[in-house]
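Why predict the complex rather than its parts? Because the way molecules touch one another can change local conformation, and only a joint prediction can capture that. The input here totals 772 residues.
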Amino acid sequence: MLLSVAAFAQGRMSHVSVVPAPARVVSPVIDGTKTTFSIAAPQAIHVSLHGSWMNTNDNCYGPLVQDTQVGVIPMTRGENGVWSCTIETPAPELWTYNFYIDGVYVPDFANPLIQRDGTRLLSILLVPGKLSENYDGATQHGNLNQVWYDSPTLGFERRMYVYTPYGYEDKANKKTRYPVLYLLHGGGCDEDTWESMGRVTAIVDNLIQKGQAKPMIVVMPNGNASQSCSPFLRIPAPDGAAESARQNRNLYIHSLVKDIIPYIESHYRVVPKPEYRAVSGLSMGGGHTLSVTAEYPGTFAYICPMGCGGNRNEDFVKGLQGIKKAGYKLYWLAAGTSDFAYPGAKVLDEVLTENGMQHTFYTKDGGHTWSNWRIFLNEMLPLLFK
Amino acid sequence: MLLSVAAFAQGRMSHVSVVPAPARVVSPVIDGTKTTFSIAAPQAIHVSLHGSWMNTNDNCYGPLVQDTQVGVIPMTRGENGVWSCTIETPAPELWTYNFYIDGVYVPDFANPLIQRDGTRLLSILLVPGKLSENYDGATQHGNLNQVWYDSPTLGFERRMYVYTPYGYEDKANKKTRYPVLYLLHGGGCDEDTWESMGRVTAIVDNLIQKGQAKPMIVVMPNGNASQSCSPFLRIPAPDGAAESARQNRNLYIHSLVKDIIPYIESHYRVVPKPEYRAVSGLSMGGGHTLSVTAEYPGTFAYICPMGCGGNRNEDFVKGLQGIKKAGYKLYWLAAGTSDFAYPGAKVLDEVLTENGMQHTFYTKDGGHTWSNWRIFLNEMLPLLFK
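Output of the joint prediction:
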């Protein structure tokens, strides 16, 4: 197709070149113990693959953090300009990967499975098996609602995700009331991240379908008090929001109980009692879990911080004692042994013990990673509301 | 950070190389009449920019269709390996763009605004102005719900998006009932596409907030009878779904009226009458609009096919006559004058006239493009339910 000069009236350019359409490729291809990745890049000089199975950095802020170098596997150019490489299929897990085209990060656009972590897009290699069995495959799906609610505590309207389980909408269940898990995200993330990176709806769908978890509502708020919603939408919070958040670091904590819980309890068929409320979160969200339960003891009967730590400061210990006094049904904390938060999690474990508070400290190998957040979620959900 | 050998136990490789973290860039930067795009690519040989303002192909299946070549602007490498180019800021519009890194398509990951069209991810350049004023900027947002519903007509459960307007959840409105627009997508798209590419929630939010459109519910189903949901989710329909769809090409049309409307009318506060139902769609969705209104005359009082054509076949004309006989309030069709569907749209216009059917044929320049679908939506919504 020839290009008309008129079409470029708005583009100031001295030279026009064209790029031929890429060859169609199928990627990735899992074939038993071998997995092959391909990308059409006939003009590239160096093409390589990075996969999360290669990560030495046990931090979910992984290989694209400034100044961190990543390991890659060089790919081989085929005759038709399609580059490929074949690796031993990694163990069952939700891995992520990308290509580097002459040093530039590129997802695998032949692959529809993609995750968004901030502005990073990661292609997904989902290797089936026991560990990953709940990351897809459910045939009974709940609904995922993107909900705007008024948050007077912060002074503006904000967005959260609300998952309602399969069957919630059935007329047969119209008198049924459900328990609620408030699931909080980590630093640099937003209300979309637990779903995008954590596969929440797939995991909850599967566990409910298998009868291993109670049908429940899952609320995923935005834990950044300077934001109205995921920055991905580019819908700014009002002027002054960031400053307010800086001046009062507990605004979001208060909004969980004063704005979000009342909204959920007046808009969804839930049981408005502590025994039907769970709160959990990863990293900063684990910190929020500790803060909100200390600030509002007796509000949540199920308390499940992940990837965060405690301390022996007087206020912190008093907060735990307040929770003990008010009562709870489950205190379940989790951290990987390579997690930088692990030492702090051990302190929390010890302080709970020292204060006579029944709890479970779930640990496994690995670090501050989405692999572990998904595994922890999978472990924790069957324990709730029972 | 040195890389340990142990971490590569699962990757079979003969050589390991590393990729340094990219420099942070800000892109795009709209500065009055100049717009600059940048990407860090120190190892690349050729970097160029493609923008939709450059498209000569007036088809929304645009420049990445097989065998179509695209025009690009070469970018200039700066000293720090950051490539950039500056263009005259295009006219107000939602444009899309990407880079080519040594011939490989790469979105602009410095830019959070992104659209998904199938597996294609396009970066968004939103140039503010009159034409684009409703593509963002609303401060009163409706909710967007991802809803799974049973579709007995097709034989399996399927997903659709349901937008409820700002205020729908307010207790003050709990007795208010709303009209419904059923908004249908084009070929190769899915239930996510009208939102992702068409900016539906932004447009409807803005028009409602400005008092130019009636508060309404917008239902966006998946029009591919072989799919349970967007292929992006990789949740397959049951075996046999594709074959059923092939054997009975009207299954989806019937499901709109037999499965989707009843679901909406029993789960949302709507007025279950034809005067409170509109149906519209682009391209294949326009075809679905024509089919469902012919098959179920009198079901929808507002009929708004876009980018599709009619004919003078006996069945088609009889279908229109049935609509006339049953009654309707608005018949509004739209097509760009460069659209390959424009001749057929003119035929539809003529046949409506020949049969004494009041209607509006909205035309403008441009083709079968998302630019036009958004503009048509913006024109059409204020006409509904009045």
